Model the fold of this input.
Amino acid sequence: MIRVLLPYHLRTLAQVDGEIQLDVPEPVTLAAVLNALESRHPELRGTIRSHEQRQRRAFIRFFACKEDLSNEPPDVQLPPPVVAGREPLLIVGAIAGG
Amino acid sequence: MSTIRVLAGTRKGAFILTADAARRKWKVDGPFFAGWEIYHLKGSPTAPNRIYASQSSGWFGQIIQRSDDGGKTWHPPGSSPAELKSPEGFPRGESNKFVYAGRPGTHKWYDGTQHPWEFKRIWHLEPALDNPDVVYAGAEDAALFKSIDGGATWQELPALRQAKGHLWQPGAGGMAVHTILLDPVNVGRMFVAISAAGVFRSDDDGSTWRPANRGLKSPHTLPDPDAEVGHCVHRIAMHRSRPEVLFMQKHWDVMRSDDAGDNWREISGNLPTDFGFPIDVHAHEPRTVYVVPIKSDSEHFPPDGALRVYRSRTGGDNWEALTNGLPQQNCYVNVLREAMCVDTLDPCGIYFGTTGGQVYASADGGDSWNCIVHDLPAVLSVEVQSVS
Done:
């Protein structure tokens, strides 16, 4: 199972508490996890990446195993601890204010 | 006995204020969608418990929410278990999908060059007058969308942007369809207002559009006195019994049209300043109009720090200050374009919200005012429903 942790506002929107666990077939890429997430929670479509181009929204970041994956290509495979379910994929609202 | 329900959208969530017809004691519920910007909420005229809300965030984009029980519970339309699957078995989740039709094209940018249309958010939701499943949405960048399935899916009415859209230019607040007026008498006629493009009218349910800005003067930004588009219209309003008469609060100037937008004339008269954002019409007196003068576009607060609603009982030109119950010193809030409305009771109730988080109400047509809630986040929009 792939573990995904959403930011607070998206947990509220999706009406979930804590982590989401997703069954994602190999290869476990960033895009595959996001596809599975949006299939489980269609209300999240458009909130993490754009509807048409599937591009990450500007103030969304992806982290796993203390690495910033935000600018990795969507077909990059996630780190083995994420694939094994030992570490979550963190979807984070960027610290952006001012 | 009617219940009055005020729907307030704020920078950090939605609030619902309810009272009985006396409109003295108010109950405050919320925040709904805490932490999100709620640009607008509006209920269906034919099914008042059907309420649509525009929820947005700089981080997560646009969400459309819908309530079918008067605001007690909400859900993104199209996300109930029965709706989640398309006939092909794939999840839909398209209630927040606003895509410009065809090639989006370009509009005028701040520096005069052309710039691609980019969807940012929904400013205004206007449920149809006769069908709770039909709702229009006014978008930034300026475009009009329509849903015929209760907000589950949206399609653009692209002819609007063909009305000289390449000449539309954003103002300081962006470029958005912020006002949608549906004509209750002339079937198929509707108006939209766009900052900073002007007023546009359709007589065929949005299939074709034409600018309706003759008579507007914007000499500082539009040297051409006959410019068809490019006017910074802040708000337009009509009375349902006289839909050919339109009232307008422009960036500067309060205006009126007696021929459904074909021609406009200034009615600012004795207002202390003709800058402002909202304008609305009394529910039972079609010649009685309300505005909230704001000092200037450089100083977005009331003149002299005194919050005054101005009322004209003559369709403009002659205005009286309404001050009873409103702060008359040290008040430096703004009242935004979506943040004033009227109810349908008699005497007519008038409501407005401020960027300081107050919502004021008058149960006597503006003669006296009460602050019915204060210290909310900045109020972006106020709508009211009379629910039997």
Chain B has one domain: 3-387. The interface with chain A takes residues 33-36, 57-63, 76, 78-79, 84, 91-97, 99 of chain B (CB under 8 Å). The mean pLDDT of chain B is 94. The first strand of chain B starts at residue 3 and ends at 10.
